[in-house]
Amino acid sequence: xxxxxxxxxxxxxxxxxxxxxxxxxxxxxxxxxxxxxxxxxxxxxxxxxxxxxxxxxxxxxxxxxxxxxxxxxxxxxxxxxxxxxxxxxxxxxxxxxxxxxxxxxxxxxxxxxxxxxxxxxxxxxxxxxxxxxxxxxxxxxxxxxxxxxxxxxxxxxxxxxxxxxxxxxxxxxxxxxxxxxxxxxxxxxxxxxxxxxxxxxxxxxxxxxxxxxxxxxxxxxxxxxxxxxxxxxxxxxxxxxxxxxxxxxxxxxxxxxxxxxxxxxxxxxxxxxxxxxxxxxxxxxxxxxxxxxxxxxxxxxxxxxxxxxxxxxxxxxxxxxxxxxxxxxxxxxxxxxxxxxxxxxxxxxxxxx
Amino acid sequence: xxxxxxxxxxxxxxxxxxxxxxxxxxxxxxxxxxxxxxxxxxxxxxxxxxxxxxxxxxxxxxxxxxxxxxxxxxxxxxxxxxxxxxxxxxxxxxxxxxxxxxxxxxxxxxxxxxxxxxxxxxxxxxxxxxxxxxxxxxxxxxxxxxxxxxxxxxxxxxxxxxxxxxxxxxxxxxxxxxxxxxxxxxxxxxxxxxxxxxxxxxxxxxxxxxxxxxxxxxxxxxxxxxxxxxxxxxxxxxxxxxxxxxxxxxxxxxxxxxxxxxxxxxxxxxxxxxxxxxxxxxxxxxxxxxxxxxxxxxxxxxxxxxxxxxxxxxxxxxxxxxxxxxxxxxxxxxxxxxxxxxxxxxxxxxxxx
DNA sequence: CTGAAAGCGCTTACAG
DNA sequence: CTGAAAGCGCTTACAG
Lengths: 353, 353
Fold this sequence. Notes:
Chains A, B: Residues 2-56 form the HTH lacI-type domain. The structure is a homodimer. By secondary structure, chain A is of the alpha/beta class.
């Protein structure tokens, strides 16, 4: 592999001049530049990224840190990764997905000088990784938020998202609206769950309705469990908002197994997911599509602005999900006469064509 | 950030000795070692990965190269990434997902000296990225195969997978079996599609049945299109094998819209996907689960063996998918009397509880 | 068992 | 406009 020295020799210049041409850091006489460029071409020279990094203490590599991804369909995460990678690339940075499991690994990575900055996903309300990040003095931006709001972040605006979902349901006459959240290990709650829950509780309070919250795993089995819990504990709910992508399909299946039809008996909105997921389910789910493509890019931009000393980036960016109507929301059934719906025992009919 | 020099000074040794202790590359007197370890601890020293890489021309970083991921649920890819990352970590390597769009980017990465080796996913039958990889002289392993078989690879054994699927369907009496493949840009065919198709054609020939192949996009819309094509072009098919994860849900929805019940009218197996995807669909799909967890790990091992000069790794590893029965395969309906099934016009019934 | 020193391939003041 | 040289923080023969 050709080095800068080889290029310099072939072009009859010093390696400093080669460096200036490659980086555009200084004026170089046109004919000198031409000679150097020719030499680079002829030798198929490519700058050694590691040496450059050591000399300049910059690598132009950004890490997107993510805890172990589960094996469930996770289109949102992929959208984050890809849009952040594109945004970074446009500004001359590489962005890589770095699966990092424990704090020690993270310190190793951050202290190693290998990345110029980091993006952190799946931020918890209390997140020791954030502390590590702060301690490491590596510039970073969060995708999500901790409980304290003075770190730079981009996040889904869950409060607005839930308000939009509740508003949509109310426009169909729904008053008794349940929330299906994601069950989390104790003390390890993602901010999105907490914030969505808080927004939901506010909305219910404003409506003068008691809240109905169910938390289950983000799996099909979790979704079926949610169907049973809703059926048993909140039989008068006419609509449900999911903040649990992975449980969406299972919830519909579970309801159907219980003889409850979507949306005739129960309307459903799945918040913070993708329209693709909505389309997979029958009936097609009305979803609040996560702004992952925008947020990934904005996160990359925010981080790079920080690295390059750009001052005018807002430290916090919030974007709500977008309503994508499907076929899972319908008029609220009239429950005024019966306190509990009569579970239909016959096989239920299809609701879409 | 403390450097090795700081540690050496504090421990009253040379930096060489510090290096020996950190890397375990040479014997060091116990008390010297203890002094050095104490100094490391006190200074919270962490080796600079970039400097180490430059000096040793090894980074212990592996890149998993993936072309732009689409926004569809792609659990299999995530499984590959995570299992490969775990396998690498156990052997002291970091593995990152590097979204790489064009050949130029890839050359930049490979020539930069930043990664010791590469794993390439979504390998096409003819793949210019593979040529780049070979030219770069960076060690690599493929996940998938090109048309020539002498490069190291791990891959799903599609021939066996299709045979198992056909065998399963035959045990239910099916003879007319269609294949739903993935539509690809011309000249850009993933090996898996081609190999699955070939295995299917062989199986049909052995059965003495004409093949019925439909190719659609890997989306819900693609799946619905497949339902129509099957209904119009191959109305006597009693079973279908999908090699198109993204179209699975849409196919079931499309069939139902056409009044065809799964599995009463048509049995379905979705090959090379995850059991999680199968569970999301109603009825739960019988799937051939991709051996992504094993293959990711094996790919990482194969690559690292190569890097470390381990000779006894088989250059090619093939593992078939595993049958995970769901509720989408049933006895073949008797079609002997009618050449074309009477499309049911009434709403269809559920098939699972 | 330990150290002095060269070298990995660049960048970047500094001098001219 | 161009170059000589120091330095980034390590590893690794080589010598003792």
